[in-house]
Amino acid sequence: MKKQSFLKGSAILLGMVIITKILGLMYKIPLTNLLGGTGMGYFSAAFSVFTPIFAVVVSGIPSTMARLTAENYALERYSNLRKTRRVAYLVFGLISTAAALAMILSADFLSVGVIGEASAKYALLCVAPSIIFCTLMSVERGYFEGLQNMTPTAASEIVETLFKLILGLGFAYSVSYRLSERFETNGELFGIAYASASEASAAALPYITAAAILGSSLASGIACIYIFISSRIHGDGVNKAMLNSDKVTDSANATAKRLLGLCIPIAFISVITTLTNMIDMLTINPCIQKAITKAPECYLPLLSDGIKLSMLPNFIYGSYTGLAVTVFGLVPTLTAMFGKSILPSLTESWAKNNKKEMSENLNKMMMMTSVISIPSGIGIAILSKPILQFLFSGRETEIAVSAEPLAILGIAVIFLGISTPCFAILQTLGKPRKAVIIMLTGGIIKLVLNIVLISIPQIGINGAAIATLAANVHICIFSTAAVYRMTGSKCRYGELYIKPFYAALMCGITAAVSRSLLSNVRFFQSQHRICLLLSIGFGSIMYFFCLYLLCETPKNIVKYIFSKKISQNS
Questions:
Q1: Are both 470 and 523 inside the same structural domain?
Q2: Which of 315, 318, 317 is nearest to 307 (CA)?
Q3: Among 51, 98, 328, 389, which residue's Cα sits nearest to residue 213?
Q4: Is 305 found in the same domain as 445?
Q5: What gap in Å lies between CA 540 and CA 142, rounded to an integer?
Q6: Where a domain ends, among 491, 509, 531?
Q7: Which one, 47, 134, 144, 380, has least CB within 10 Å?
Q8: How far apart are CA 337 and CA 341, in angstroms?
Q9: Dist CA 141 CA 137 (whole Å)
Q10: pLDDT tens, 165-189?
Q11: Cα dist. 332→2, 376, 463, 565 in Å?
Q12: Looking at residue 193, what DSSP letter applies?
């Protein structure tokens, strides 16, 4: 099997992320429009509880498998490579099954005691099985990533997202239609009579949310089946001769201990990473309630027939997480792929003590993350409201809640996008403790600022975004410094950050000016989506023009790609 280079692996994963994010938005946007702020409150709360459990069980598996697979392959321990895969299925399969059963059995407690919404139980029950599917998928994905083959990961991610779109939306709209039809027929739902359609819709939201999540879980199951069948058909490139050359393998107990020894610290880091969502879930609602009690007049514009004062905290939380946080999470997901793709080659160069190769790959990764994160963050900050109107047209109240927080989160995108792949490197270099300390202190900053700022009526939900920004600035500074210090590489601040920032600033100004000028044209006044896309297009042209003039690394990458193509064709 032919290995993929860092750039090729990154391109495959980047293409996958772009496709899955487009499909994800096609899923999330109609779902948000269907559920509204209140329904997205149930949705986000369920995933805020699910995510730490998922992080403990699943998150460390891909990088652990990739590291051990790359190591065994480099040392030509092919039989041990296969054995590690088999032991991983057994160990992580048992752990994931136990976690899924524990979540199902404790759904009542979690919904009432943690989320504070008894109706969230149905969503928790529906999401639990996906832990098993995602665990088995992660073993297979990590195995092929360690072989520097990113295609199985990319293909299975696309399959999972595609079926999430089909089944998640299909189930949600089907349940919504049937419950609406039942109310129109006899004026009640589940044996309870409701005075108006808005009250009945509110009562139906937990069940519609659960249906959407059930579709997502089934999508994970389908993707799991797909990656198993695909890997058996295409193989892993390890033949009988290679297996016969490796007669000695580690014991199952030793392999299991090593798997868990590498996985647990990464899982702990991932749990701390999910603290942001947990902190928001636990603090936003009570702090918003305090702010409403102090100055209810600040929140009166948000009230309507379907939204009462008592429902506002959950509505604001759902609007913030369903709209602003959804857009905020797009860019870090892209940059995380660079950390994933660099892991096998970094493991190999680290094992061989090849510092030159390690430094070259590190600088390529940091350049690619910065040229994506910086303009994206500035663009989101400048165009936050038009972006939300483009994606969630028709949800004006939710947009009113989310526009200002998203503008603040746009700046946070820059720091989170740059720092995200750094944690993959810290884990690869065997220094998870540093990552834990950095993330934990960032979580403390987030918690304190959330409690202090959100309770102030004039700040409100903006306080959650400010807290996220402050935490991500801290995390970015310390994680990038740790990576450069540990690898002995020199950070070229001008090339990696200052020049891309200037180019991104020109991009943001161009986009803002373009949108302002276009919005004065009669045609674009009624076509705000086209206006936004053209503005982003003009800004992107300015960005790449400035970047090409200022930075050498993008030129070198382009020259490298074209020289490879020419050599292959000749």
A1: no
A2: 315
A3: 51
A4: yes
A5: 34
A6: 491
A7: 47
A8: 6
A9: 6
A10: 999 999 999 988 888 888 787 877 7
A11: 29, 10, 21, 30
A12: E
